[in-house]
From TrEMBL:
This is Molybdopterin-dependent oxidoreductase. One of its GO terms (biological process) is respiratory electron transport chain. One of its GO terms (cellular component) is membrane. It comes from Actinomadura montaniterrae. Gene3D superfamilies: Oxidoreductase, molybdopterin-binding domain. Keywords: Membrane, Transmembrane, Transmembrane helix.
Amino acid sequence: MVRRPALLTRPLRGRLPEPPAALTTLPERFTSRLHDERVAAWLGIALGACFLVAFCTGLVSHLMQNPPNWMTWPSRPVNLYRVTQGLHVMTGLAAVPLLLAKLWTVYPRLLQWPPARSAGHAVERLLVFVLVGGSLFQLVTGVMNIDYWYAFRFFFTTAHYWTAYIIIGALLIHVANEWAKTRRTVMTRPADGLRRRTFLLTVFGASGVVVATTVGETVSPLARLAVLAPRRPGIGPQGLPVNKSAAGSGVTALARDPGWRLTVTGRVRRELTLSLAQLQAMPMRTARLPIACVEGWSAEATWQGVRLRDVLRMAGVDDDADVRVESLERYGLYRTSEVRPPHWHDPLTLLALRVNGEPLDLDHGYPCRLIAPNRPGVMQTKWVERLVVR
Ligand SMILES: Nc1nc2c(c(=O)[nH]1)N[C@H]1C(S)=C(S)[C@@H](COP(=O)(O)O)O[C@H]1N2
Ligand SMILES: [Mo]
């Protein structure tokens, strides 16, 4: 037990007004035995586990996309990001039924009188509101985001990132406060637990159904079950989903232009300007690699193209150089991406010209796109036109 400063536990002085009449009759109205500690405790444990996994995997995703200077991600295992991001989205989705059930279970407590027994209790309750508000915000906007419903005015990624810290902070304090009680509750086994067990199994079942009907967006053998998934492996041009089309990015004319050239510039010993025919004449390599989108879907494909390292070595690039890959796309957040040494040295990192046996579809990045192992989809730049070495 944590000993709290006396100031926080001292009962609030002064007379509170009598509770409003509606509140005094409330206890009789919440007769369901499901509004109880036991249900709340088990749902809390499941939610806590989901949030912990979502937080850690979210952090991985953030750091892969915005690596601080002292940190570089390995390019292997090839499917690492696919797994962490799949877990991120699946635990987030599984949390939706859990959170709704938990809120329903505990909502009578919203109306408790007095609202706070002590200053410490007031702070505790305030933190619960922060936790509930933050969790609802995170799950609602998260689901909207993976369904490409950008109805909000703020930038999702930034809001999602900072809200995660608020939630995890409030959650740690909440767990510290509830730990002893929760332990006691789940260790005892009441005789009349059948209804509660049925309720809990129904809620966990609902989470299971949500996951089962979505997880096929990244576990391809289950693709046919994935009726809730907006993107599925196998569906899209060349058997591959498309996130942003060439038309949507305004690159159709530029990408089709026979005058297209790939240039390699910046800190190089020889600047290069390569036509598509010149690239095609270089040694062709094959790599079986997934696109693993931050939104949770992923799909594996067989890519063919030239190794990025072959092109960079032709230009005489230092081994420790960073490379910025730039797209023909003129606007948009994902028109460039950074490739650090572990990724460009990897023999599987390609400037792909073909996928699944055909020249790249316009929507998959024709004439040339980046594909690298263990890398978020947003960093697999399509319609590449320039490599800038730094
Ligand atoms: N230039 C450019 N490249 C891009 C994007 C983009 O918007 N512009 N979207 C990225 C995202 S979010 C994903 S998931 C992958 C999807 O590749 P695909 O459409 O070929 O499946 O492309 C990435 N490459
Ligand atoms: Mo993506």
